[in-house]
Write a structure and sequence with these properties.
This protein has 458 residues and is α/β, with parallel strands linked by helices. The protein folds into three domains: 14-122, Fumarate Reductase Iron-sulfur Protein, Chain B, domain 2 (Orthogonal Bundle); 133-232 and 388-457, FAD/NAD(P)-binding domain; 236-385, 3-Layer(bba) Sandwich (FAD/NAD(P)-binding domain). The protein contains 17 helices and 16 strands. The chain has helices at 14-17, 30-37, 47-50, 58-66, 70-78, 84-90, 112-122, 145-156, 173-176, 185-197, 214-219, 250-258, 284-295, 315-323, 392-396, 426-429, 434-457, and strands at residues 133-141, 159-164, 201-203, 222-227, 233-234, 247-249, 276-280, 299-304, 327-330, 332-339, 345-355, 366-368, 374-377, 380-383, 387-388, 421-423. The protein has a five-stranded parallel beta sheet with strand order 3-2-1-4-16. The chain has a five-stranded parallel beta sheet with strand order 6-14-7-8-9. Strands 10, 11, 12 and 13 form a four-stranded antiparallel beta sheet that branches. Helix 2 (30-37) crosses helix 7, helix 4 (58-66) crosses helix 7 (112-122) and helix 12 packs across helix 13. The radius of gyration is 23 Å and the shape is globular. It starts with 13 loop residues before the first helix and ends with a helix.
């Protein structure tokens, strides 16, 4: 008999976890993983593979889990995805691979993400390490998911790769953007170590576009360049009082918590004052910021202009936030930030909103009600309403064509307007998912490998 529901994921207690940064989802046991893998129907057409941005052979790796061949399962995943422990934790599987699982016709989808995480955490990788061709070198700008995926595939093909990172540690958004309770930094380090084993070199504290110009990389002997600089430029609300002391972008807030140890007494990196935090936004970044603030001991409220049904964050992140005691102020839009005589935030003024009937595109508009605006007392406001691509390299490389929102324009092979300069991830798409960034990095790597192959042949 088919088990209709997913094998439950053990979770840390909500009243305990909202006071620390330990991982919330505790992971499957081996019995859990085998039990869940047994739910897979091994269907012929593999719709889950098609809806995976990097086309992991999902039924095949799940069969290996079912048969307790974990190392084989990891080898299968690694054919197309170098970060199973990361993707198993942070990918929105519910709108990708799991959304097309045939089990959803009657039951819950197979927990593909949970199984991928289990394999990544518990199996041993078998690497085919080969000598790298030092005559054909590739420079990767940025050590986020797109850059690392490109580096991984290039190195596996025998290309010498150097990754340049502006920060003092590796991982990009995986390290500074996603909190420890969702993605432990030890997990990031473990997966990046696989790239080191392939011979990939890493240079931190190098800002391409300032320390080294993009064109100089070719003078240094690199045959191709991949730009994966992410979307680190925050968007603000443009309302009165937004420049007050205590208003943060979510980027700065999360970076200071995740990367600079803000809130930990032994580190001299203070972040918040007072007792109350308001986070504006409804995406995963807003949930991350709010849940961090809660763990730092603050009364935390999320203000979002649409209803609960329209929240763009993953359902499980919303559920976890609610369990942890975060207040949701829905159908509300900020109008003004009030500050005290010292210029510090004291409250945020909001307007009640309502949804119209769906338009031709099926989406409801948000319009103000006639209700009197209301005030929420707070000491800190975190703005989590979106980001744009990091502009440093783009501004310093005039030949690089960009789109309306500052995103780098690329062709079907991820090549930019400059020959042999490729780009991918959030720098091209704007803020998106980790797995989509991985897919773009892999596509660029395929083009670079083709170039490498032709150079060797000719």
């Amino acid at each position: 008999m088919i088990q209709p529901s997913k094998t439950p994921m053990p979770l840390a207690d909500a009243e305990e976890r909202n006071k620390n940064f330990s991982e919330v989802a505790l992971g499957y046991s081996l019995d859990d993983a085998i039990n869940e893998a047994s739910r897979c129907l091994q269907c012929l057409h593999k719709p889950c593979v098609v809806s995976c941005p990097v086309n992991v052979d999902i039924p095949r790796f799940i069969m290996a889990v079912k048969e307790n061949r974990l190392d084989d399962a990891l080898s299968i995943i690694h054919q197309t995805n170098c970060f199973p422990s990361i993707c198993g934790r942070v990918c929105p599987q519910e709108v990708q691979c799991e959304s097309t699982c045939v089990m959803t016709k009657r039951y819950q989808a197979v927990a593909i993400g949970r199984l991928e995480r289990y394999v990544g955490d518990h199996a041993q990788i078998r690497l085919d390490v080969q000598p790298l061709n030092q005559q054909f070198k590739v420079a990767i700008v940025g050590s986020g998911p797109s850059g690392l995926a490109c580096a991984y595939d290039c190195a596996k093909a025998g290309i010498a790769v150097t990754v340049y990172e502006a920060w003092h540690d590796l991982g990009g958004v995986l390290r500074y953007g996603i909190p420890e309770f969702r993605l432990p930094k030890a997990t990031v380090d473990k997966e990046i170590d696989v790239l080191r084993q392939l011979g990939i070199e890493f240079e931190c504290n190098v800002v391409i576009g300032k320390t080294i110009e993009c064109a100089e990389l070719f003078d240094m002997g690199y045959k191709a360049v991949f730009i994966g600089t992410g979307a680190g430029l925050p968007t603000f609300m443009n309302i009165e009082g937004e420049g007050s002391i205590g208003v943060f972008s979510a980027n700065e807030f999360l970076t200071r918590v995740n990367f600079m140890k803000a809130g930990q007494p032994k580190y001299d990196t203070p972040l918040l004052t007072g007792k109350r935090v308001v986070v504006v936004g409804g995406g995963n970044v807003a949930m991350d910021a709010a849940r961090c603030a809660k763990r730092l001991g603050y009364q935390t409220t999320i203000v979002y202009r649409r209803s609960l049904n329209e929240l763009p964050a993953r359902q499980e992140e919303v559920e976890h936030a609610m369990e942890e005691g975060i207040v949701f102020e829905l159908l509300a839009a900020p109008l003004k930030v009030f500050a005290n005589e010292q210029g510090r935030v004291r409250s945020i003024f909001c307007q009640r909103m309502q949804l119209t009937e769906p338009g031709p595109d099926g989406r409801c508009k948000v319009v103000p009600t006639e209700d009197v605006p209301f005030e929420i007392e707070t000491d800190t406001v975190v703005v989590a309403i979106g980001t744009s691509p990091n502009p440093i390299l783009i501004r310093s490389t005039k030949e690089l064509k960009t789109g309306k929102w500052g995103t780098i324009m690329v062709d079907e092979n991820q090549q930019t307007s400059i020959e042999h300069v490729y780009a991918g991830g959030d720098a091209v798409t704007g803020a998106a998912t980790v797995i989509e960034a991985l897919g773009a990095g892999k596509k660029a790597a395929a083009a670079i490998i083709d170039y490498f192959t032709k150079e060797q042949a000719g």
